[in-house]
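hey
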C-alpha cells in the first residue's frame, strides 16, 4: 500500500500537469490552426501577441490592475494580520472568519454584487476601481500568509524597542516589517497573481478599453479559436510559474 501511494500521487500530478503542458506546446506551434502535436515549432504567435495593440492593451490593463490590487491587499492585509496577531480584543475568530469570506463565497456572487455597486457609482471600466475589487479577493490570501509570517516575529523584540522609547509606528517600520519582509514579499506576489489570473470579476467590471488578458482570451475563444490564444495562455502559465518559483525562493530564505 505504501509503495502504491507514490505511484498514485505521481499519476494524479501527471494528469493535472498534462493539459498545462499541451497548452504550452501549442503556444509554440508554427501552424495556422491549433492541432496537437504541432507540425512545426515557432515563436510567430508570441510575436503576434506582443505586436497586436489590442493584446498589448489587455496586458497593460492586467499589470496596472494587478499592481493596484497587490499594493492595497498587501498594505491592508499586513495591518489586519498584525492586529489579529498582536491585538487582544473580543470576537477575534469571528473577525477572521468574516475577513476570509471572499475565499468561501462563490466568485460569481461577489462579482454580481460588485457590478451593481460599480454601475451605480459609474465606475465600470475604471482600472483603479477594478484593482480595488480584485484586492477584495486577494486580501484573504494575503492575510493567511502574513498571519503565519507575523507569528514568527519575536514579540520580545517589539517590547524591547517600545521599552527603549520607540513609537509603535517606528517599531513597525524598523523591527516588524524587516523581520516579516519575506512573508510580505510572498503575500504581495500571491496578491498580484490572484488579480492577474482573475476572470469572473473582470468580466463584470471591465469594458472594451480596460479588459484584462483573461477577459481578452475569453472573448477570443467566443469569436474564434486562434493560435494567439495558446501563446497568451502559455505566457500566463509562464508568469504564474515565475511567481511561484520566486515565492519558493522566498520561503527557503525565510526558513534559513
Amino acid at each position: 500500500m505504501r509503495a502504491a501511494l507514490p505511484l498514485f500521487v505521481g499519476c494524479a500530478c501527471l494528469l493535472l500537469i498534462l493539459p498545462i503542458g499541451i497548452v504550452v506546446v501549442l503556444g509554440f506551434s508554427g501552424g495556422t490552426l491549433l492541432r496537437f502535436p504541432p507540425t512545426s515549432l515557432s515563436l510567430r504567435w508570441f510575436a503576434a501577441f506582443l505586436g497586436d495593440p489590442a493584446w498589448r492593451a489587455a496586458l497593460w490593463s492586467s499589470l496596472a490592475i494587478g499592481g493596484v490590487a497587490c499594493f492595497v491587499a498587501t498594505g491592508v492585509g499586513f495591518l489586519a494580520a498584525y492586529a489579529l496577531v498582536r491585538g487582544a480584543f473580543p470576537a477575534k475568530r469571528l473577525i477572521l472568519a468574516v475577513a476570509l469570506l471572499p475565499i468561501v463565497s462563490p466568485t460569481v456572487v461577489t462579482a454580481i454584487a460588485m457590478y451593481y455597486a460599480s454601475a451605480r457609482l459609474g465606475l465600470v471600466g475604471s482600472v483603479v476601481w477594478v484593482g480595488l475589487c480584485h484586492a477584495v479577493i486577494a486580501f484573504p490570501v494575503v492575510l493567511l500568509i502574513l498571519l503565519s509570517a507575523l507569528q514568527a516575529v519575536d514579540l520580545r523584540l517589539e517590547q524591547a524597542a517600545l521599552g527603549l522609547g520607540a513609537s509603535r509606528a517606528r517599531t513597525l517600520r524598523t523591527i516588524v516589517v524587516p523581520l516579516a519582509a519575506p512573508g510580505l514579499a510572498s503575500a504581495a506576489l500571491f496578491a498580484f497573481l490572484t488579480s492577474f489570473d482573475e476572470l469572473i470579476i473582470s468580466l463584470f467590471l471591465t469594458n472594451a478599453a480596460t479588459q484584462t488578458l483573461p477577459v481578452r482570451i475569453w472573448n477570443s475563444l467566443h469569436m474564434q479559436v486562434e493560435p494567439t490564444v495558446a501563446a497568451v495562455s502559455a505566457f500566463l502559465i509562464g508568469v504564474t510559474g515565475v511567481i511561484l518559483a520566486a515565492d519558493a525562493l522566498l520561503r527557503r530564505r525565510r526558513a534559513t
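Residues 27-255 form a domain with the MetI-like fold fold (CATH 1.10.3720.10). The first helix runs from residue 4 to 27.
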